[in-house]
Write a structure and sequence with these properties.
The protein is of the alpha+beta class and about 140 residues long. Helices cover about 50% and strands about 25% of the residues.
Length: about 140
Amino acid sequence: MDIDAWVWWLIGAAGLGIPLVLTAMPEFGMFAVGAIAAAVVAALGGGIVAQVLVFVVVSVALIAVVRPIATRHRADRPHLATGIDGLKGRQAVVLERVDSNGGRIKLAGEIWSARALDGDQSFAPGQQVDVVDIDGATAVVM
């Protein structure tokens, strides 16, 4: 049983697709596309030198072109603050007097325990405060 070269290239492309899925490294996908291009050359009757050359040229070209574009898009993506980081810097309304010993605020529609950042400060009910940090379940405000 003699298997044609293009079948081996397709097996290689599938083999390169497995680590692409397992590791999420796009370089493996680019090598798989190079192997598919080499399979096309083999199916058209190209020799082994032409097949390897097409594999190398297509793979390197994809890495040289696609990788910088992907890196640039990843770097341009805005940082989305969620959880505790999303609450820092927000404003809240004082519900019960807040000082260095504690108090209550309404932050993002929820009631939170709070304490003043500066031990000498206190905030009266109804006053607007800025959340500077979250310490456990307590908002640190100023």
